[in-house]
């Protein structure tokens, strides 16, 4: 044992984390893109820590004097509002005072007719556009105009910039494939701004860059985020759990990883609950049985959320989700549909909807496609719910 128990739970999930486990190579790749003003398509499923990696690279590049403009496309109602936020961020980071920012806006973003003021609430520069960013016919041109303006601003200031657009598939989903052509036309002419287009929709993002007929074909590098290797995750888990003043069985650590299917978010979530059980003083040793107890508590806390999502599904979608769970996602669609008495097209449509609603994701790590649950704990919940 490690003596006194700490009161700080070392396992964090549901937010950007400061301590990354075995993600140094990924951070270094993004940093190099920023330093060289390259283009990178960063593809990683939800819950794998993609945003935390982007945050870590942001910190390194910022310290090196590179301006990082990092935005989540899903946080904005439309592309026009994303473009407005991107321009505002650029002017704030390149200009320290209102008069300087106004001059920069007039020089580098004049076509957008920006209007600047100071927000009295926080003293920050606020930027308005001379166009309605919600007007659908102007949204994509607004975005590319802003990107071109950032390129001119970075070149004049002699400080490189890296534009990071997380959940980038939202941009293409909203405006269609024409967006890709327009963005490519802008990006391929830039020399002082690098780009990271990150996304969690593995199928959609992969299609964008691997199809020769698409505009993003050969536009930049690719980085596909996989699970953290167990050889690196296990020592991290052991150290964190032992800090609660308990001993930890090797089988318990493997049980955490197995139940979480190596998804970093779920690993941290389950380890966090194990730490809580150890810290309450009733347990001095973490066993596999105790991990199962911790998972039962996690599922109990998520029961209402799981139930609401389950009840929102159609009968065909529920039956298809059960196929994925029972067959561990590795099945032939036509054969599985036949055995379940579902038309093949109905099952395919259900899979597509379940993917869009973030029940499922496609795993391309093996030969062929394997369907995975975005939240592996849903498997245990559904099995227990059906049993009741």
Describe the protein in words.
The protein has 388 residues and is of the alpha/beta class. It contains 16 helices and 11 strands. The protein has helices at 24-36, 50-63, 79-94, 98-108, 136-157, 169-175, 178-187, 202-210, 230-242, 250-260, 264-279, 288-311, 315-326, 333-340, 344-356, 377-387, and strands spanning 39-43, 67-72, 115-118, 125-128, 161-166, 193-199, 221-224, 247-248, 285-286, 360-363, 370-373. Strand 10 (360-363) and strand 11 (370-373) form a beta hairpin. The relative contact order is 0.12. Mean pLDDT is 89; it is low at 1-6.
CA gyration radius, whole angstroms: 24 Å
- Secondary-structure element sequence? HEHEHHEEHEHHEHEHEHHEHHHHEEH
The total count of helices amounts to: 16
Number of β-strand runs = 11
The proportion of residues in beta strands is: 5-15%
* Helix share, percent: 40-55%
The largest beta-sheet arranges its strands as 2-5-6-1-7
Structural class: alpha/beta
Low-confidence stretches: 1-6
Largest sheet: 5 strands, parallel
The oligomerization state is single chain
Which geometry do the CA atoms define?
A: globular
End-to-end separation: 40 Å
Mean pLDDT over the residues: 89
């Amino acid at each position: 044992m490690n003596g006194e128990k700490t009161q700080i739970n070392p396992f964090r999930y549901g937010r950007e984390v400061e301590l990354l486990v075995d993600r140094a190579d990924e951070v270094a790749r993004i940093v190099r893109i920023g330093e060289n003003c390259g283009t990178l398509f960063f593809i990683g499923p939800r819950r794998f820590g993609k945003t935390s990696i982007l945050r870590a690279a942001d910190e390194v590049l910022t310290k090196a004097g590179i301006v990082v403009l990092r935005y989540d496309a899903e946080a904005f109602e439309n592309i026009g509002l994303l473009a407005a936020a991107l321009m505002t961020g650029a002017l704030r980071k390149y200009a320290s005072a209102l008069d300087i920012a106004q001059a920069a806006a007039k020089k580098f973003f004049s076509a957008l007719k920006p209007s600047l003021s100071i927000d009295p609430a926080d003293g920050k520069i606020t930027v308005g556009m001379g166009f309605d960013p919600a007007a659908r016919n102007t949204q994509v041109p607004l975005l590319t105009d802003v990107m071109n303006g950032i390129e001119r601003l970075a070149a004049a200031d002699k400080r490189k910039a890296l534009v990071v657009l997380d959940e980038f598939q939202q941009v293409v989903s909203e405006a269609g494939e024409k967006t890709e052509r327009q963005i490519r036309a802008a990006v391929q002419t830039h020399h002082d701004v690098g780009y990271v287009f990150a996304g969690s929709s593995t199928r959609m993002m992969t299609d964008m860059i691997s199809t020769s007929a698409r505009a993003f074909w050969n536009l930049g590098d690719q980085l596909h985020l996989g699970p953290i290797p167990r050889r690196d995750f296990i020592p991290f888990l052991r150290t964190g759990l032992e800090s609660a003043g308990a001993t930890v069985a090797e089988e318990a650590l493997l049980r955490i990883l197995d139940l979480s299917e190596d998804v970093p978010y779920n690993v941290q979530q389950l380890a966090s609950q194990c730490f809580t059980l150890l810290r309450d003083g009733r347990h001095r040793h973490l066993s596999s049985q105790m991990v199962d107890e911790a998972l039962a508590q996690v599922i109990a806390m998520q029961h209402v959320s799981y139930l609401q999502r389950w009840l929102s599904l159609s009968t065909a979608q529920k039956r298809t989700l059960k196929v994925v769970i029972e067959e561990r996602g590795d099945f032939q669609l036509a054969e599985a549909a036949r055995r379940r008495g579902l038309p093949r097209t109905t099952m395919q449509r259900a899979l597509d909807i379940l993917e869009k609603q973030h029940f499922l994701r496609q795993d391309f790590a093996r030969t062929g496609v394997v369907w995975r649950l975005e939240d592996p704990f849903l498997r245990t919940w559904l099995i227990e719910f059906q049993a009741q």
